[in-house]
Amino acid sequence: MQVHYLEIVTPDVDATCAAHATLHGVSFGEPVAELGNARTATLANGGLIGVRAPMHEAETPVVRPYWLVDDVAAAVQAAEVTGAQIAHPPMEIPGHGTFAIYIQGGVHHGLWQLST
User: Fold this and answer.
1) CATH superfamily of the domain spanning 1-63
2) Structure pTM?
């Protein structure tokens, strides 16, 4: 299991980025439109951390790991079999891969398939 993308949704993006930069010695770039305007930093394992503001009034703060999978469609089906609620079906982000989000036991989880 490997977390490819760790997403933090917060109303205070700048303070959150500053805290992680200071605590972990990472540098955050400018907002990336394809990732919901998240400011990202590369992790030591090659993954990313992204910090963004909520995209609409109903979106609450959350920390969501996106697990790297070989086949996001199969992973979504496997999550459904275990009773997960699919919050976002697989969607390709050009140049980044394909993601999906499911909720299990009230906890958000992401799935991420790299582009081939």
Assistant:
1) 2,3-Dihydroxybiphenyl 1,2-Dioxygenase, domain 1 (3.10.180.10)
2) 0.89
